[in-house]
Design brief:
124 residues; globular
Length: 124
């Protein structure tokens, strides 16, 4: 039962990250209202010419890997810095979306924990 729940949550999380990454290139999602400081950071990332695209590529790759059970642990490692960034962005700049960012971070940490045996060779 736990494996089925983990699969469904991982599939939804991965598809959400994939959609977010693709949106950075196609702009198919509507822009949500954010405070001026949050908009300034997003605009600075876009103005850099590469940072916003890099985040989008990482979200796409991590989201795809997250949905495939065999590579879910790798996807969780790849997408973890992005979810931490989303969490911190929402805590400090856009507090109205904090609940969703906490949920995303908890899902990522759960998947990392479930795959901890795959990471043993990194620590030793």
């Amino acid at each position: 039962m736990k494996n089925k729940i983990l699969f469904v949550i991982s599939l939804l999380f991965g598809l959400m990250m994939l959609n977010s990454g693709v949106s950075k290139f196609t702009n198919h999602m509507p822009v949500i209202e954010m405070p001026d400081e949050a908009n300034a950071l997003i605009n600075a990332m876009i103005a850099s010419g590469w940072l916003f695209a890099l985040v989008g590529v990482i979200e796409i790759i991590g989201g795809i890997l997250f949905t495939i059970p065999k590579y879910r642990g790798l996807g969780a490692l790849i997408i973890f810095p992005i979810t931490v960034g989303i969490f911190l962005f929402n805590i400090f700049l856009a507090p109205s979306n904090t609940v969703l960012s906490i949920i995303l971070l908890l899902i990522n940490v759960w998947v990392l924990w479930e795959n901890k045996d795959k990471y043993q060779h990194i620590w030793s």
